[in-house]
Amino acid sequence: MSNKTPLTRSDVEDFLFTEAELLNSWKLPEWLALFTDDGVYYVPSTDVAPMASPDNNLFYIADDHFRLSERVKRLMKRTAHVEFPRSKTLRLVSNVRILAQTEDSLSVSSAFITYRTKDAVTDTYFGNHYYQFVRDEAGLKIREKRSMLASDGLRAQCRISIII
Amino acid sequence: MPHDTGPAVKIDVARGTFNVARRNFVDPGILQAEHDKIFDHCWLYLGHESELQKPGAFLTRSVGGRNLIFTRDNKGQLNAMLNACPHRGAQVCRERSGVAKTFQCFYHGWVFGTDGALRGLPGAEAYQPDFQQRPETQLVHVPRMESFRGFVFVNFDKDAVSLDEYLGNAKEYLELVADHSEAGMAIVGGTQEYAIRANWKLLAENSFDGYHAATNHSTYLDYLRSTTGGLVPIELAGTGRALGNGHGVVEYKAPWGRPIAQWIPAWGEDGKARVDAIYKKLVERHGEARADRIAHSNRNLVIFPNLVVNDIMAVTVRTFYPKTPDLMSVNGWALAPQDEHADDRQARLYNFLEFLGPGGFATPDDIEALEQCQAGYSNMQEAPWNDISRGMGKETPAYDDEVQTRSFWTEWNRRLFGDQP
Asked: Where are the alpha helices (DSSP H) in chain A?
């Protein structure tokens, strides 16, 4: 229990780069497996406080684990029309910081740029991810991922039909 | 707008067809005519009274191509003013919302009250003694601002008919929403601000189109089937109605949960007790028949030209404006009872996000559909017409017919081209 060495920024970056690669290659069920069984995914609207609660504020996305798994199921179907044919995506992850760490938990922030190209139109999503991880012998699992857009709403991007 | 390019709307009652020219979605001349004849003369939604609770509360919002400041002044009165300094035109308020005693233009320092009155200006002695009191040195108010059951509208035509007359039959449906709660309805914090690369009228059509659900939203219906406890055994069924003045509505039963007040198994026994209590209160206040209608029927309402109030698995208020013929910006809000239990509020917002908004399980597929329509209009020279004939001639059009959409287009056509088809 007490012999875990603290994780370094490189350890966390390896995790985040792997996550980005899974999403870039549309391996969404594998991506979902990075979450704990109660893991959640949030994208707040951009006129609320970054750490606002989705229970009393309208977000763009506020998925509990069940809905997140349904989002993944949906996006893997041909009838998720907005992603048919599937867009090409590329995620850049930078400015990674470990904000706090205990033996069994980590909070991490990063900056992201995500490009989505469909029908020769490229949309750019950018902002900060905030993660809460749980850590056990098997490694890290995401308990919360919160993607805080640094744009004014989605005026330029129109939709958020991928996991950014 | 000349007719030399052929009619914009073509109706053939004998053949039961109603066609809309695809040119209406791409022609910059049409867009200009819409600004001149629709957005400059129709009642446009500004906001909800609940968004400005305290004296001094303000928000800035783009409405009909204007940048407006919407305030509750220190006397508690609502004001809608053009956000332009009478001096040189700079926007005197550059924040999206807040509470203020005054607005100071940062350019030369003129100071205005939240009622728009000029309170002071640096070096006032360099002007005529009555300068500060002159009408032309005050912030300009929107020519008309009126409200109905908490929904505040503006009109840039000072001679327009009253809001009451304009809303006409649509008032019945706004009242059904306003009557959800004795405590009143309020906009929940958080705005969904997005855009669609398509003509704005496509979103008006889409917002009360009952016909597209089965195919366009099959994944949402799949999702409902897999939620805890499954679907409530209710078929999608109901009616469509043209309300006059271009407004229209579809009203129908549907198998999703409604926080007011249709329970689904996913909300558990506690949720059932709360929904039952809400329903009991509705019956006490409105009687059995109206309570049943408020609780168990869904309504997708479009108030011409661009206000959507959809009372479905949650209540959304939505407006949208053209930027160019093939691009619109969209604002979406959630409306909820002021006194809602925290668990019901959570269920409501989760319901909302499951379907609605640019990150939901349904709206993104609407956005895709509208953009694909717009792309299709590149072919309009050889493929010039949209069909909106569904249910023509029926005495009671169904929720998935298109009488409400024909109502929109009939008014649109009348405003642009007069009564002649």
From this structure: 9-24, 28-32, 65-75
